[in-house]
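dumping the sequnces here before i forget
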Amino acid sequence: MKSNIIRSFTIILLIFTSVSCDDYLEKFPLNNPSDATFLTNETELNMAIAGCYNGLWLKIQEMPFHLVFDAVTDIGWDRNGSALQAIGRGSTDSRNSDGLTFWTGMYQGIAKCNYVLANMSRGEDKIPAATFAQARAEARFLRALYYHYLIEIFGGVPLVTSPLALSEAQIPRTSKEDVVDFILEELDQCAADLPQANKPTLGRATKGAAWALKSRVALYNQRWDEAISAAQKVMALEGTEYLLNSSYMDLFQYAGQGSKEIIFSVQYLKGTNMHAMFRLFGSRNAKAHTNKKPAYQLADTWECTDGKQIDESPLFDPKNPYKNRDPRLAYTLAVSGSLFLGFQFETHGDSIKCWDYNQSPAKRIGNLEATHAYATFTGICWRKYADNLDRLAVNESDLNTIIIRYAEVLLNYAEAKIEAGKIDQSVLDAINKVRQRASVNMPLITTTNAEELRFAVRRERKYELSGEGLRLFDIRRWKLAEEVMNLPVLGRMKKSYPAIPPVVDKWGTSHYEKIPIAQQGESSDFKMRVVELRSFDKNRDYLWPIPYIEIDTNPVMEQNPGY
Amino acid sequence: MVLIMKLTTILTLVFTCSLYASVYSQGTRISQEMKGWTIREVFQQIERESRFRFFYNDDLKEIDRKVEFSTKDSNVEKILEQLFSGSDVSYEIMENNLIALKLKSGYINSGQQPRTSVKGKITDQDNLPLPGVSVFVKGTTQGMITDVNGNYQLSGIPSDAVLVFSFIGMKTVELPVSGKTVIDIRMEQENIGLEEVVAVGYGVQKKVNLTGAITSLNGEELARKQYAQTSMVLQGIAPGVVVTQRNGQPGKDGGTISIRGKTTLGNSNPLVLVDGIEMGINNIDPTMIESVSILKDAASSSIYGSRAANGVILVTTKRAQKDRLSVSYNGYAGFQSPTDLPDMVGAIDHMLLTNEAYVNVGKSPLYSENYIQEYKDYMATNPDKYPDTDWYDELLSESGLMQSHFLTLNGGTEKVRVLASLGYLDQKGIMPNTDFKRYSMRFNTDLFLTKSFSAQFDAHIKQAYLTEPSRGTSEAIHWAGRIPANQGGVLSNGLWGEGWNGDNPVAFTNDGGLHTEEAPSFTLNMVLKYQPFDWLSMNLSYSPNYWQSNNSTFVKAIQTYRWDGSASYMAPQKSTLNTDHNRNLSNNLRSTITLDKKLGEHDFTLLLGYQQEDYRNDGLKGYRETFPFPDYPVLNSGGEENQKAYGWASEWALQSFFGRLNYNYKERYLVEGNFRYDGSSRFVKGRKWGLFPSFSAGWRISEEEFFSSIKPVVTNMKIRASWGQLGNQDIGTYPFSSDVNLGLKYVFNKQVISGAGITDLANTEISWETTTATNVGLDVTLFNHLNLVAEYYYKVTDDILLALDIPRIIGMNAPDQNAGKVENRGWDLGLNYSNWERAFKYEIGFNISDVKNKVLDLKGVNKTGTTVNHEGYPMYSIYGLEADGLISEDDFDDQGTYLHAKQYGTIAPGDIKYIDQNNDSIINSNDYKIIGETIPRFTFGFNFNAKYKNFDFGLFLQGVGKADGLIRDQGIMPFLMGGTVQEQHKDRWTPENQDASFPRFAFNETNNEQTSSFWMRNAAYMRLKNLQVGYSLPQSVIRKIKAQQFRVYLSGQNLLTIDNFWDGYDVEAPVGNGGYYPQVKTYSIGIDVKF
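..and the predicted 3d for all of it:
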């Protein structure tokens, strides 16, 4: 009996003591290294910098984020009933999901840069000084770029420049002015450590990229002198590093990806990260969806080849409205009667057949642009970034998307000079360089009248940069939005063209008061189609609402007025 | 009494077995040293080593006489001869290996008494003969057991003898012979199983002595319902247990179980232990289950400490019975159909109504009148060009054949007993290529090694295959409800139509490749039991559990065609294959020691234990694209360009010490205390360990002297109370660790460059979440028939582990924090009445429970979305605008200016009007409020089972008394994102139809597309969950086919639902856009046979 008890308790004791407590419960991640030793060598620093660039891949409504903004301006429209569409229509609030995606994405990019900048000193003694300095400059450049987008969309935002712990994250908005100061200062400093050589398909920040961005940020915020000097630094490299591409069209196609006009672009690679621009912009016949559409009004913007607006030029033929026009019209938009993605692009309602040139020999096929209910709506498509080389994989384009190119710098320079009251030949040269690109070759601007020149450059920006995501910032700083964003988005007459041209104002905005517009319930066969009615509250809609999560989690965060 | 119970059990077993097994060989040889053993111990040893059973009266003094001898290779007769030579005890070896002991003097000295004989037949309530009943002369060992026909015959008994008839599970009957020669007895079922034991944490307890809140369920009843997923059989049958089924897809139609509300904001599934091993409840076939215990309060579940916060479900599987060889088969087959589907408009209506929606918002009509006329004219003759597709109809084209077969083999010898069960289930879906197959095998083996050592060796092998279209069933349903009827599905030549830009759900479910999930699992449970004394036992178990999840998703490119046969979209543009394999191994080691000692009227049980569990996962994944041979969806047949490989691993461990002390005085005053001390690898050193105690007490008032007068009415009455704490640590595996995300690549120079960065905020301070629960309960049995269980509880969970929204300016993903506090208060009520005594037998069960959930604290951060957790409101509340009907023309002034707060976009009469909660004259996100609650309240179940002659009938109703449901987006909002409308939408607002159920059609206007109470409906319901009619073949027929039981039945599930929810959607539909595989009705026919 006794021995039995002893035996049993021994067994129990053995079981209980055979267990060593501490080691058993020590489990650490098996997939990822701990951050304690991160950034202590060059390999890790390079990886961390790649991580900072990774934020450029943010997509909104499946589009590279920096290209979406046109859809909420007078020149574009998102057909999908999306959060983006609601912004354009002027019916959004702080729950807007695209606003949240954008805000979050930018701050995630900033956080990665902040982390590198705060911790890279861990490896300073093991990393060559030049490499170290360039890495630091790249992180600062990217951070400045992300802040630039944030402030232009939201106004002043919290300026976070080092990693935030949860307990320190409740900080107020810094005024837009102060963030601009920060960005300009940072760009100056990082330019010093960035390489000068422009290698557009390398995708890394350069001196020129920093200065070009600086010219944009300064211009947008009325820092004329800084804009001028930054642009001049880029212009000084013209010929060696920067060059306007002779083909305007190629810039937005695979053919032009290596062009020296491109200063900074987002890089893509098949199988790694791709975008769906072909599907979003392409036509129905090309098996794309045309989700993002240009407003028809945009087609009437470009001048005739004589340099006059269409309501003034004798060259304008209302029956053939796209003839004798600034070539950039046909490079920016697919218009009826043109060749688009290997098809005869025809949006006339009776053209139920069209040619398919992708087949050899070309074949007549049923024309979806005329018969499909969800075809173009406005009668035109965006052409930039829809390259027919992507036709077999419409969601898998690795065509790089341009963030900033040399033509913009020239226009930034011209505009800053005009606004600064420093009109000289260099202003005209800058504008005319853009107008006289080999494939564009529009008549020279010769006026030196400040007011005329001011509107000439503003129109030029619309002619040159439409479809590149920059229009929103222009109509905001010119206070033009309250006018143009109260106009409806129009589509072409289904079976005709207006007998007379619309009235085109000094901004390049076309007005249709004298042209029949389909009223509620009317057929759009012979009247302009109303694609969307919009409204814009000038006391509110110049800024997007701060996402609700920020307001909920940060008591010192102030909402923008009217939301 | 106890002895008799024991005896009868043994006898029954022996008897039943003897029907099938040949009479036991007398030749069993026994070799054993038996020095200092009592005769009782010798008998026990013989019982262990042979099939002989001893049959004696406990009063027999001889039985405790110590003997000293050893046998070598002796047969039993020889041993008995040795034992009793010269004593006054004689023995008789009877049929069925029974050995009865009697006093020799009993015969000699009873001469004075007149002797008589008596015989009779024993039947059960159904008048079926009851074999195996023991019939004794009271106070003697004289007696026998009834034969296969329920007959007995006793001779030479005193004429004033009292006969005792006893059978396990039946009320014992005592009757004086008083001169009768024939005594027939119909025995009644014992209603309150006073001896009934239920599974509790690491052991069993007598049900009457429970002090915690435990519901125990009988496996046989669970298996009566024809559900593929075991979680569903728990729906509605236990008070406080809410099972919600959100969809009906084969393999994914399991219910989510919540016990007494939701205590945590993360994973709130209860811990399910199958014979002590954590396992998904759906891994086990319902037919394998012997019993289920649901531990609801802290007192009963705190012995599981850190994992018990959401309650514990203990599943005990069937084990082999001794000396018995039997085969049983249970099978059924049936078909399924959706409970409800939206009724979409046809092509012409779609176009007309789309035009209305366009025109209403000032847009030009989308379809011209000419086109619509043309459509009408040619729709019948040219359906390819002018399609009128009923997408749901074409998509849900299958009958959903379902079949289940289950075979149980039971075999046992003295030392080894095996129960082998084999199950096969195949549930096909109502959508093409949806299927779930499960093979399950279980071997439960009991080994009796020596007098004090025994062992269990159980193996559970499961293989499950889930198949679904590669793009998922939800997406298919989503598209079916969204694509207008004027888009082509299947062309008349059999080619796939365009659908919606190439998204054709009929095509991609039939021909778009498969997603398969194969989930084999192997679980062993090895238990060694050592019981040196009857008051001390030790248990050591080791259970390795290895499982895999092998998934493959082959998305096949589908060529769609335009009406004229020309090729249209290829969707997707190329075929892709993702294949991943996950290996999981968990090791679970448990040891317990139990001391059970009775000192007079004081009964103590002490349990101490140790447990450790570790887990490791290793995964591997491969990807390839472009498959020239799409019929071979394996990685090797894909193109090598862009091929990718991935791999990952993770592990965690838990370590625990636990104990329980039970004490009762006269089985009248009951006290219990538990503790568990848990360590988790998920927290940093210093925060790893948590202590979770609990206490409970009960008072069986019915056992008190003063109660005796009302005992005939109130058979049993107990009040009980408990308090305890539970924990939760179930969050990411390494929440404390700040690590480098290696997935942040970028492209330079058209080359991918690896990238890294910190993307997740870590929280080293994270630690246990604790639930504190209090429970009071009352158990009453009235008139021996009516059982009532009533309970009230209050639970509060502190330090809830939660990824709170954090300012996004941090730029990292939110970490889990010990942030929240939630309370649950509620009550459960269960009522049960049965009457099996008449020819028409029936039982009625009813249960209802309610839980009120409230979020007390979330550090001021309110999560946003459609279902939200806000301080002061229940979890998962619906958050949106409050609608105030539709705007009328009176809401505008003469100038056409809207008179109320500014709403979204351009509004007009017939749009939804919202209430301006903050009176700032603008409707926006600041006007959002909690508008509904999704956690079901007043959940109830009602069952009625009846039997008449050979027929049986079962009806089961289940429902929810209060809940809100919401469908939004494409599910219910007209023309959302360019979609279509349902027939019910025709009752929309127009100037002629101002009293409409839906707002005016307004294409792409967002005013009516806001989440609002307009789209919310009452989700209370009552459902006829199961209706079953069965017929058992009569005994006479059964005997001819040498069976024990043969029953056929017809059964229907989800036959009828009474609710006020949206037409087209099942009332249990998840809050969302209606894109989910519909719940189904099942009609089946089945048989249960036992040989």
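Chain A touches chain B through 119 residues (CB under 8 Å).
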